[in-house]
Amino acid sequence: MNVTAYPEINALLAEWVQGVVRLLGDNAIGLYLSGSLAYGDFVPDRSDIDLQAVVRVPLTPEELRSVERLHRDIEHRYPAWANRIECTYVPVELMRELTPPKTPRPWWGFGTLYPEAPAGNEWIINHYLLSKHGIPPKGPDFNELVPPIAVDDVRRASAQDLFAEWVPKIDDADWLANSHYQSYLVLNLCRILHTVIEREPRSKKIAAGWAKASYPQWRDLIEESETWSYGDEMNRQAEAIRFLRFAVDKVNESKILG
User: Fold this and answer.
1) First-to-last CA distance in the chain?
2) How many folded domains does the chain comprise?
3) Cα 59 to the chain's mean position, in Å?
4) Phi, psi at residue 136, to the nearest 5°?
5) Which pLDDT value is given to residue 58?
């Protein structure tokens, strides 16, 4: 399996695909690689591996335990990617939902399987990006599983995500003290701004380049966020908060939320 430019990741993906097929059999409809690896924005020292599995029916307790063991074994064999793999297991009936479904679905992330993880505003954003860039190591084209997604719906979801997910971080000093989270926040704000203002979701790399050109007063902060990697210290909490407030003002000016 050579779906990326990284041999170790290809080997990891092959183990995941083979493991899911072995454990779930016909219940596994499609397995997809998404995120930065899919749209050419991957940085080995900082990026995660984003996966999605579409299943015919919700996983049974036994299947959940098997999938959990599979992910733990994979992260044990590939320690460089421990806590850096995210994967959802979504029943195909939920894929027809344009808005975040009320029914939770299993999600693996940060080394833990959450059997009933709720979907947020990222639902439609991720599905739009999967529809444009998703790579299927197994199964049909992702577009065969989802209804057409209008870009204005993605813009609204991005704006809603800004207020629901990111604005509360202003008062979370412990979260902001984490260098990884500072970088993650800044680059996500760039992508939200590009999606809302330019009317097109793009990768963090492209969105960051656009934001630096459009708002040069934030260039230094964005560049440090782009070059951050695990082990680096980034002490830009106050500036990150100011950039967050700036993004709120710009999104409000767009009137995308009415």
Assistant:
1) 46
2) 2
3) 22
4) -100, 95
5) 98
25 & 111 share domain: yes
Q: Which residues of the chain are under the pLDDT cut of 70?
A: none
Helix orientation angle between 179-198 and 151-161, rounded to the nearest 10 degrees: 140
CB within 8 Å of 106: residues ≥ 6 apart: 59, 64, 67, 88, 89, 113, 114, 115, 116, 117
Domain with residue 139: its CATH number is: 3.30.460.10
pLDDT reported for residue 125? 92
- The last residue of one of the domains, among 144, 173, 208, is 144
Residues, the chain: 258
Give me 217's structure tokens.
């007063």
Residues 35 and 88 in one domain: yes
Question: Which tokens sit at 162?
Answer: 């800004």
Of the candidates 116, 132, 154, 37, the one whose C-alpha atom is nearest the C-alpha of residue 84 is: 37
Residue at token pair 């790399």: 205
**85 and 201, same domain (yes or no):** no
Distance CA 158, CA 248 (A): 11
Q: Which residue has the tokens 């992330």?
A: 109
Cβ contact 197:151 at 8 Å: no
Find residue 109's DSSP bridge partners. Answer: 112
Task: Tell me the C-alpha distance between 131 and 13, whole Å.
Answer: 20
Q: Containing domain of residue 216, as a range?
A: 151-254
**Bridge partners (DSSP) listed for residue 91:** 55
Same domain for 126 and 16, yes or no, is yes
Task: Report the alpha-carbon distance of residue 151 to residue 155 in Å, rounded.
Answer: 6
pLDDT at 77: 97
pLDDT computed for residue 109 by the predictor: 97
The pLDDT of residue 208 is 97
